[in-house]
Design brief:
The chain is of the alpha+beta class and about 150 residues long. It is about 20% helix and about 40% strand. Strands 1, 2, 3, 4, 5, 6 and 7 form a seven-stranded mixed β-sheet that branches. It is globular and about 45 Å long. The protein starts with a strand and ends with a strand. InterPro entries: 4-hydroxybenzoyl-CoA_TE, HotDog_dom_sf, YbgC/YbaW. Belongs to the 4-hydroxybenzoyl-CoA thioesterase family. It holds the Pfam family 4HBT_2.
């Protein structure tokens, strides 16, 4: 099976609590960073969407923690499309510790496609639908510095 799209990052000190464990709210930040890079890898970065009069909005974010991430660990956020509907799409983000493959957190995010003028729900364009369904298998964006 092909490796999914991966966004690699290193946990920074400022993302941790006093025990050097990643603070729970930071996982949503990791999801947002990975989605941004996933879309860029698809050739549909945020500025390209805005230039087309499109935007997307998070309407549901579910996080399921499995293990803790700690300061200075390297994490892969594996992103894949679960579903593309008429006006929305769903992405799965699986966060895994690179050193040992431990599953850390799973996120499922529902995004609604919006027009920018007027700001209202709109259909997912066919070209974006096809791109989301194809994904970016095997692409690795490494921001871990290592």
């Amino acid at each position: 099976m092909t490796e999914p799209f991966r966004f690699r990052l290193r946990v920074r000190y400022s993302e941790c609590d006093a025990q050097q464990v990643v603070f729970n709210a930071r996982y949503a930040d990791y999801v947002d960073l990975a989605m941004t890079e996933f879309m860029r890898a698809l050739g549909r970065d945020y500025n390209a969407l805005l230039a087309r009069g499109l935007d997307n909005q998070v309407v549901k974010l579910t996080l399921e923690w499995k293990a803790s991430a700690h300061f200075d660990e390297v994490i892969d956020v594996r992103v894949r499309t679960l579903k593309v509907g008429n006006t929305s799409f769903v992405l799965e983000h699986e966060m895994v510790r690179v050193a040992d493959g431990t599953a850390l957190c799973r996120a499922e995010v529902v995004y609604v496609m919006m027009s920018t003028e007027p700001f209202e729900k709109t259909s997912v364009p066919d070209d974006l639908r096809a791109t989301l369904e194809e994904g970016a298998p095997g692409v690795l964006i490494d921001q871990s510095g290592g």
